[in-house]
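Homework-ish question, so no full write-ups if that breaks the rules, but can someone show me the predicted structure for this set?
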Amino acid sequence: MGTLDTYYTRPMSPPWSKPLDVDRLSEAEADIDFAVPLAELPRLRAQLADVAGEVHGRVHFRRVASIAVAELTLNGTARLVCQRCLGALDVGVEADTSVGLIAAEADVNRVPEEFEPVLAPEGRISVGELVEEELLLTLPIVPLHTDTDGGVTCVAADVPPLATDGREEDKTQRPFEQLAELLKRK
Ligand SMILES: [Zn+2]
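A: Not a homework solution, just the prediction itself:
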């Protein structure tokens, strides 16, 4: 993990960060294998100040009723920081989900009910954004050790959780999450 500091000066962007043409991939029923370091996902990092670890998996694209669908399977480990004792907290991550990719929010109603709609502005989204969207929904916003963490003891179990030091302000940068909340209200 010692190489993360050099990421922003690296000249080449990793394959998972490249925007993909979802229409073309869904017509070709393409498969894309990936390995994504969590520390390099900006929206995830905004939500969970210290996040490390890696997930790997595959995206399979297909079409369902004129909608491009991405089937995302992934697993790995997210290394978070317990907000009570500030100790390392490893969270196993596993997902097997299908999302309907839409170019604009107006297309939400065209997505078959069994798929969660995800925005792919102008028909483009990167594997990193798909992975990030899933992790934002599944990882705890305030990570805390629990009794089930394989014998790891929270060293400050009686101390209340720390404040989230203003990270709520990032909400305007999360169009997908807002979309998910809009849909929940329907
Ligand atoms: Zn703890």
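Now go work out the reasoning yourself. Hint: The chain has a mean pLDDT of 83.
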